[in-house]
């Protein structure tokens, strides 16, 4: 797959040269999918069933996978050199060490996902390759993935709109007095019918439960005059994520809750308008913080958003410690939240960074006005 006339692998090589890496080793499911372009479902569910892509600076790459995944790997990956180990009889780390040795990389600088590889596998790898210099390369992979391809942007936009529409459709199917569980089931069904392959997460809390950051829908009654916060997403077309949030007014809106929501909306729209090329993540965070104070809203969130793609929280995060500047075709979920009056108010949309300014991908006719259950 190409982006800016360079393949993902070619773009990776540019960063490898900058970091002095002779080879990178891809292990996590997200990065295996992104760089080797093969989706191995069990790689996510069974972490010791490793799938590994070896991507050298020079020479041919290699793919290592469990033998039972041969059919999937053969059908999907672009990598020609494919090797399969027998689970419970052969070690994937032995295969990795053999590949690196064959390519003359036993004493070289090896970038590897140290934040993903389990400790017992890492100890085995160091034991088999004592002269190699193993360094973390997770951030390097993040930099390659941060600029989205046109195809990725189209998938993410479609996924975001399906997710949003699933909520909006469900609002008309319930009423005050229904349970959270009934409402959440309707949203999920709408998502699956709309094209989601899987519901990846579903946070929902009404009334006092809204303040629980990761509350799960249950048999709590959605009471008239209360608020309900939803933050949810699914997987679409090759494991791309959606992530969408709204705060819904149940029945007749409580004036004090409506006032908080209206002020948050003003802040939200201002922050989105500032998402321009060259602005750093830390600067955007500061803009949001100052705007919260201007509108007399409490501000305590550690970040106000994140990039999105195959991973749910991709680099860069919109945090006060991240000085990476926004670039064209970065894609972010923006999500400042307010905790006030014992309730949490939350909205979240998908934004593309373009030369013409921010483009809202999750809502083609953007209107963050009040959503209601009546």
Automatic annotation (TrEMBL):
Tell me the Gene3D superfamilies matching this sequence: Creatinase/methionine aminopeptidase superfamily, Creatinase/prolidase N-terminal domain
- Cite the SUPFAM superfamilies for this sequence: Creatinase/aminopeptidase, Creatinase/prolidase N-terminal domain
* InterPro entries named in the record: Creatin/AminoP/Spt16_N, Creatinase/aminopeptidase-like, Creatinase_N, Pept_M24, Peptidase_M24B
Q: Name one Pfam family in it.
A: Peptidase_M24
Which segments does the entry list as coiled coil?
A: none
Ranges for domain Creatinase N-terminal: 8-147
Boundaries of each Peptidase M24 domain copy? Answer: 156-354
Q: What is this protein called?
A: Xaa-Pro peptidase family protein
Source organism of this protein record? Lutispora saccharofermentans
Lineage at the top is: Bacteria, Bacillati, Bacillota, Clostridia, Lutisporales
């Amino acid at each position: 797959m190409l982006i800016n006339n360079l393949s993902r692998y070619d773009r990776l090589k540019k960063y490898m040269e900058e970091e002095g890496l002779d080879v990178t080793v891809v292990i996590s499911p997200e990065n295996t999918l992104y760089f080797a372009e093969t989706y191995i479902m069990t790689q996510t569910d069974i972490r010791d069933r490793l799938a590994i892509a070896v991507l050298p600076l020079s020479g041919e790459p290699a793919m290592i996978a469990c033998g039972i995944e041969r059919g999937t790997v053969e059908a999907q990956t672009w990598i020609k050199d494919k090797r399969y180990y027998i689970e419970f009889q052969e070690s994937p780390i032995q295969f990795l060490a053999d590949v690196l040795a064959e390519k003359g990389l036993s004493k070289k600088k090896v970038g590897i996902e140290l934040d993903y590889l389990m400790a017992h596998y890492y100890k085995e790898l160091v034991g088999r390759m004592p002269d190699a210099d193993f360094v973390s390369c997770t951030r390097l992979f993040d930099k390659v993935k941060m600029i989205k391809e046109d195809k990725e942007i189209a998938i993410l936009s479609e996924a975001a709109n399906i997710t949003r529409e699933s909520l909006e459709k469900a609002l008309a199917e319930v009423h005050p007095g229904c349970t959270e569980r009934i409402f959440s089931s309707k949203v999920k069904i709408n998502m699956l019918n709309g094209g989601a392959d899987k519901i990846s997460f579903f946070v929902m809390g009404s009334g006092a439960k809204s303040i629980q950051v990761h509350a799960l829908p249950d048999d709590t009654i959605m009471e008239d005059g209360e608020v309900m916060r939803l933050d949810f997403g699914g997987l679409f077309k090759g494991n791309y994520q959606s992530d969408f949030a709204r705060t819904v007014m149940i029945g007749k809106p409580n004036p004090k809750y409506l006032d908080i929501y209206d002020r948050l909306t003003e802040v939200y729209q201002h922050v989105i308008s500032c998402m321009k090329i060259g602005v750093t993540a830390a600067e955007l965070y500061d803009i949001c913080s100052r705007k919260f104070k201007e509108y007399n809203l409490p501000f305590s969130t550690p970040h106000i958003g994140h990039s999105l793609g195959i991973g749910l929280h991709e680099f860069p995060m919109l945090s006060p410690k991240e000085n990476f500047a926004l670039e064209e075709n970065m894609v972010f979920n923006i999500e400042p939240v307010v905790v006030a009056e014992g309730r949490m108010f939350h909205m979240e949309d998908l934004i593309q960074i373009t030369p013409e300014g921010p483009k809202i991908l999750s809502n083609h006719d953007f209107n963050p006005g009040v959503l209601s259950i009546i």
